[in-house]
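For this section, I looked closely at a protein sequence along with its fold in token form, which I now present.
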Amino acid sequence: MHCCVLGCSSNTRILRGKPRNGVAFHRFPKNEYSRKLWVNAINRPNWQPNVNSSVCTQHFAEEFINRTYMSGPKLRENAVPTIFHWSQQAQESESSTPPDSVT
């Protein structure tokens, strides 16, 4: 299993036999409204999740994660992925780009 977020390298092969540090994989909600929120948040053009698509815990704010289960982290009902490395990379590249010179 792997995370469907672009640029995320989380997958069960990499994590197999290593400490998962609270990383789990969460399937898309069956509720159509919640599912659309996830798809919009992930922002992959012309892509729709299938029954095997999942998002790893690293893309959810801590407030959306319930860590009291022995089997691993579970998402709260209102969880939506909001943490993306590509959004940080875009911000970093914008801030490191010098402004255009005006002549």
The first strand starts at residue 25 and ends at 27. Helices lie at 12-15, 32-42, 85-96. Residues 12-89 form one domain.
